[in-house]
Design a protein that fits this description.
The protein has 418 residues and is mainly alpha-helical. Helix 1 runs antiparallel to helix 2 and helix 10 runs antiparallel to helix 13. It is 82% helix and 0% strand. It starts with 11 loop residues before the first helix and ends with a helix. This is Major Facilitator Superfamily protein.
Length: 418
Amino acid sequence: MYSLRRSSGGPPCHRRRSFSAMAICYFLGAGNDNLFKQAALLVAVSQGLTQLQGWATLLFALPFLLFSAAGGWLADRYDKQRVILAVKILELLLVGVGGLGLLWQDWRLILAMVFALALQSALFGPALNGAVPELYPARQLVRANARLKLVSTLAILLGIALAGVLLDAGGGPLVREGRRLVALTAAGFSGLGICAALVIAPFGARRTPRSFPWLGPWRSLQDLWQLRHDPLLALALAGSAFFYFLASLVVLQLNSLGVQQLGLSARHTSLLSVALMLGICAGAFLAARLTSVTRWRFVLVPALLGLTLGLALVGSAALLAPDWQQWLLLPALVMSGACGGLFLIPQASFLQARPAADARGQVIAAANFCAFGGILFSGQLFNGLALVMTPGQGLQCSALLTLLAAGGLAGLLRRLAD
């Protein structure tokens, strides 16, 4: 079931066209998710509803736990292009409903929209990520994933930055005009995503013999149990899950650090996450130069140690005078992101290359299940930390968690080497 596979990728012109269209779909979808989510979080923080950040993160992660197995089954059963197109159409419908909730400041509708957007992402991810190894051979996967990470990171940057810019342009998070601009922009992104999905060439259906996973989480747990036979695949999956747990926790802490502790505007608070994501882009391309799907473990521990230092510095920024804070914050966030990208990309590429073609969606879905289990936990951990410490102190705790993870990983890698 698990072995490195080669892919012909088809004619180069078709490969480039499909990959570009997939990248655009990914860009617009990730931008939409983060635009809506960041706008909702900034409105919540501005209203003093800090606890809603944790609940929004919980609801964003929950569909990946419930429906990741279904997304993997669809990707292995049907033509991935058709799955991508259907999910993009669903996204447009959901954005329309969520925009109304944002306009009315109806938190039940907004939180339901966060859940629904995550549901469509849970179905979209295995199809898109599973298609990449069908376009490129294993030796090119790290580079292709670095490009996709650049695209998705730029989309996350755009979504997060636009949320603050649009809200401020309309008079602030509590003014209706800014929220209307967010809703219209999100609808435009969804419409463009449908156009891009129509350009992707068909991949053909694999027709996996597995039955539909009606008990989604239980099927995901069964798939994870099977990975015990492949320690390297299990390691990559666990590392990916830790990255997404930590990234989610840090973004929540940055929102509170900017608005509550440093007194920044919505726009400048969003730019903290922008600096982090720019670093991830740099780390992704560094990973493409240093690693491959057969040689990647040597960068993991150094990347985590660099991430520990970066987060510790970010958490210390509140101790400085306001004029000096930006000179520490921005370089430390870029450094943290670069180490995170160097840590993530080789493992994500290995998760795509290792499984057989008819089990690729299954493995990617299991990885999503773990990653968003970590994100789910990060929301609850954030709520708990916010009750007993400042956001800066919370970031210091995140640095400590990363240091402990680096120590545990170093011991595990020594055992695997033996």
